[in-house]
Amino acid sequence: MAGRYLIINADDFGMCPETNRAIVKLLHERRLTSTTLMAPCPGAEEGARLAREHGFSVGMHITLTSDFPTMPWGSVAPRDKVASLLDEEGHFYHSPQDLYKHGVDGEVELEIRAQYEFITSRGVRVDHVDSHVGTVYGLGGRSFLAPVYRLCAEEKLPFRLPKSDGYLRAMFQGEVPQPFAKAHQQAVAGAEALGVFLLDHMFTSPHSVKELGSYEALKEFYLQGIRAIPAGITELFLHPSYNNEEIAAVFPEWQKRIWEMEFLLDGDLPKVLEEEDIKLVSWASAPWGN
């Protein structure tokens, strides 16, 4: 594939009203080309309604953990059917490691399909699948990719996984440890065996607010990354939002989400895309298989 195609995706649609408002604004202003909905979250009903009313197609952001102690969420499937995925309070585990320790494969698949049904039953078209905090990939020692790939193959949906290892090399800042490299190779092979389309490349900022230090540093990181994307289909995924004081009080990294909102509205972003002759596409319009 000779051209450079870029999907700009906002994760966490449906997390809260502040995130929903931010993502709708960015989609309307064509600063995003995609978003992914978290079906278990407090703002999911609103997110699905907004997607339907505005004609947005969205991805399914498979969610199997709960992020914030002040705003926990649980399963879409009936609790008694997926009890291995839930803590004593009936919420998803906060730690992926607890999910890996307790989760039963069949219950994971049931929950994934319940989340898909939640979105599609509300009149929203799903155009791809991805994973909240990467819990399904197997990089933490246990993979839930098999049920994901089955759903993707049945519904003819592409999946967020890059065929190249550039994302892993960036994450490890150099050579990828052999267990992770092997898990990645197996994940790619599993998708290709079922005809599930994958990204060529993907990237995001792995840096914390403290590491970045300023909005300017985050902006420069993303602009450099965009200039450097190779030929093929690349996804840049971010987590833009307006401020949510309740979450920000217990999760200082929320500031990064505010900076990412600012970056997507920054006038330098479209300038760099034009200078680099990068074509913006959505998951629905990307040239898969070419």
Description:
- It is a single chain.
- The protein is α/β, with parallel strands linked by helices and 290 residues long.
- The chain has one domain: Glycoside hydrolase/deacetylase (TIM Barrel).
- Helix content is 42%, strand content 15%.
- It has 12 helices and 9 strands.
- The strands form 2 sheets. Strands 1, 2, 3, 4, 7, 8 and 9 form a 7-stranded parallel beta sheet that branches.
- The longest helix has 16 residues, at 105-120.
- The N and C termini lie close together (6 Å).
- The relative contact order is 0.17.
Question: Which features characterize this protein?
Answer:
12 helices; seven-stranded parallel beta sheet; 290 residues; 9 strands; TIM Barrel; single chain; alpha/beta
If you consult CATH, what is the topology? TIM Barrel
Helical segment count? 12
Mean pLDDT: 96
Kindly report how far apart the N and C termini lie: 6 Å
Strand content: 5-15%
Describe the main β-sheet briefly.
7 strands, parallel
DSSP summary, beta strand count: 9
Question: Can you tell me the CATH architecture?
Answer: Alpha-Beta Barrel
CATH superfamily (homologous) name: Glycoside hydrolase/deacetylase
Task: Just give the CATH class.
Answer: Alpha Beta
